[in-house]
Design goal:
Length: 646
């Protein structure tokens, strides 16, 4: 049974799963207790090399009495032999036994050891050597059987991507959760078909939607995402409220939340009006629902709480039922005097220099100040300190970023002596440039559009998380634990849902190691998406001549462009390398994902064709097909095509 563990309370909800993997030893990145010294009389040429290098080993101590030599190879982190076998005891002209081994694709860098033993004498030889560079992998095949199941279904996952002995982190993400449902560890242990397999059984009260199994090799860095569908009802909407819903600083608020599982543990936290960073809620050590699935608790509002709409969030750790309960703090705990702060000019484009003047403080008093964007989130630079002059006045300038989010910004300042707080407002009327190191294309689009994002400056393979902030300051979940590339670059896409609010959004990307954060603004236009115009099916064309090189920009067509439920749609894509193994998925207007029905491969001319039949109950609207090389991480090299079901 794979051992599971949970993340911190407000971040990880634990889902009890059954993973039939056998007993797993405690993780140890140095399974070899020490690197042995080379056996005298042995040698290896070259002493180090990358994947694909043929290493030649030699030893002069066995003599002619040995007929066969057994060998085995151990790499860093492997808990058993990476490879083993035997060879004939053949001498070279100098009387040495010589044999070779070629480093296969997928192996990782570090100190490896070739061991060899004479079958008659039992004399063991140890020859260390170095593998350098990144693991090189072929196209990765991964999948799940079955692809669609109900509660109680046992899903079997498989991939041929991991070499023997690789340590693998695996986690499962439900349809509407930002955090992994569980996190486990297994080992690459290919079967006779070269596949590593593991299992998960959907619990009886699981809810429906597209789930995703994620797994990443610790050494090889091979990463797979395997979507699958659970055909079950969505969670029943649950009720929650605060009493009273309007309070003063220092008051106590009572909260009620229903629709949870009986006796379920509940995580809860608070968000202030001007800060998206959660605040630990109260001094309750643990909160559990009762037998009816109802949780009740209280929280005392801090004495220095700021006026505005606060939000208490509670989430069941196993059911994932989520409540966001608003309540209002009517007045500020620390008075804010807006008469003592002025900003000039009152509005401007991103990149404008604003002059801020405050007064009413003590002479030479230290003052802290910060800027908050239209969602209430403070800038990552945090608080900045200044000092008033002999008249209690301070003046400073703020060069707003060219990519500053349009809308009403706030600057807040507080004195360190009397705790006088002042606040002023300014308006950013529009952006004049993109965030340095990050971009979005397009940055203005209607609902239904797929936006492409890119960011750099992260550490090698750093795990990243992203989410979105809507114009009404609500949080839209994204993804967690997505690795950056070997060069610290990350690219991803997000499709604007049909019910998205019009206005300025923010995509937030955060590195878990570097803590580098990007806030990428974009605008969603009001109105309905425009379906593509019907177009006739393309006429048959003769088989094209092989291209001299693949196109830099893959392109494709769908025929027919407009069809009905039950129709068969034909897809044709050009621009990928010949013989590339591809994967695809199709997204319905209601955001249900239909995974690939079979493996597809680009032909020798760089052309890919396949067919897909829309289900009989297919929803009406614009559908999207995404196709990409199976070996690429994230959405690198993905081509998106659209068609309409009427």
């Amino acid at each position: 049974m794979l051992r599971l563990w949970s993340r911190p309370a407000a971040l990880l909800s634990v889902l009890l799963v059954s993973v039939l993997l056998g007993t797993v030893a405690p993780f140890n990145t140095t399974a070899q207790s020490r690197i042995p010294e080379p056996t005298p009389g042995s040698s290896v040429t070259p002493a180090q090399g990358e994947v694909g290098t043929t290493f030649t080993f030699a030893y002069d101590g066995w003599g002619s009495s040995e007929d066969y030599i057994a060998y085995w190879i151990i790499g860093p982190g492997t808990r058993e032999h990476f490879e083993e076998g035997q060879f004939d005891n053949r001498f070279d002209n100098e009387g040495r036994t010589v044999w070779t081994w070629t480093a296969p694709s997928g192996v990782w860098s570090g100190t490896w050891v070739m061991y060899a033993r004479g079958l008659r004498s039992s004399l063991v030889v140890a020859i260390p050597f170095e593998l350098t560079g990144d693991a090189v992998t072929m196209a990765v095949v991964a999948g799940v059987t079955p692809e669609i199941g109900t509660a109680g279904t046992q899903f079997q996952f498989f991939t041929d991507g991991w070499p023997k002995g690789d340590v693998i982190d695996a986690w499962l993400i439900p349809p509407d959760a930002r955090d992994p449902a569980w996190l486990g560890r297994l080992y690459g242990d290919p079967n006779a078909e070269g596949l590593t397999t593991w299992q998960w059984t959907a619990p009886p009260d699981v809810y429906g939607g597209v789930w995703t199994m994620h797994a990443r090799g610790y050494y090889s860095r091979i990463y797979v995402q395997i979507p699958f569908t659970i055909d079950a009802p969505l969670p029943i909407p649950a009720g929650a409220y605060a009493t009273p819903d309007t309070v003063q600083p220092g008051d106590t608020v009572s909260f009620y939340a229903s629709g949870l599982r009986p006796n379920e543990e509940v995580a809860f936290w608070v968000n202030a009006p001007d800060n998206n960073t959660p605040i630990a809620a109260g001094d309750v050590a643990a909160l559990f629902a009762d037998q009816q699935g109802v949780a009740q608790w209280t929280w005392r509002v801090p004495g220095d709480a700021r006026a505005g709409v606060w939000q208490m969030t509670a989430q069941g750790r196993s059911s994932f039922v989520l409540h966001q309960i608003p309540f209002t703090v009517a007045s500020d705990g620390i008075p804010i005097n807006r008469d003592y702060l002025s900003i000039s000019p009152p509005e401007g484009l991103g990149g404008t220099r604003f002059e801020v003047t405050l007064s009413g403080f003590e002479p030479f008093e230290q003052v802290q100040y910060w800027f908050s964007d239209p969602t209430g989130a403070p800038l990552r630079e945090g608080e900045v300190t200044t000092r008033t002059n002999a008249s209690g006045i301070a003046v400073w300038y703020w060069d707003s970023p060219a990519y500053a989010m349009p809308g009403e910004w706030a600057v807040t300042a507080i004195g360190t002596r009397q705790r006088l707080m002042v606040q002023g407002k300014l308006t950013i009327t529009g952006t004049t440039g993109a965030a340095p190191g990050a971009s979005v294309t397009p940055d203005v689009a209607p609902v239904g559009t797929t936006l492409s994002f890119a960011a750099d400056g992260f550490t090698r393979y750093e795990p990243l998380s992203w989410w979105l902030t809507a114009p009404d300051r609500s949080i839209v979940p994204g993804m967690v634990e997505q690795p950056a590339s070997a060069t610290g670059v990350y690219t991803w896409t997000w499709t604007i849902p049909p019910d998205a609010q019009a206005g300025t959004w923010q995509m937030i990307l955060l590195g878990s190691a570097s803590r580098r954060e990007y806030r990428i603004p974009f605008t969603v236009l009001a109105g309905e998406p425009t379906p593509p115009s019907p177009s006739p099916a393309p006429a048959p064309t003769p088989e094209p001549a092989p291209p001299s090189r693949p196109s830099d920009t893959p392109s494709g067509t769908v025929a027919p462009a407009v069809g009905a439920a039950g129709d068969t749609f034909s897809f044709r894509v050009e621009g990928y390398r010949p013989r590339t193994i591809m994967t695809y998925w199709i997204t319905a207007p209601n955001r249900r994902v239909y995974p690939a029905e079979a493996t597809i491969v680009v032909d020798k001319h760089g052309i890919l064709t396949w067919e897909w039949t829309a289900p009989g109950d297919a929803a009406s609207g614009v559908w999207q097909v995404a196709v990409k090389p199976a070996s690429t991480r994230n959405n690198e090299g993905t081509l998106y095509l659209e068609f309409t079901v009427q």
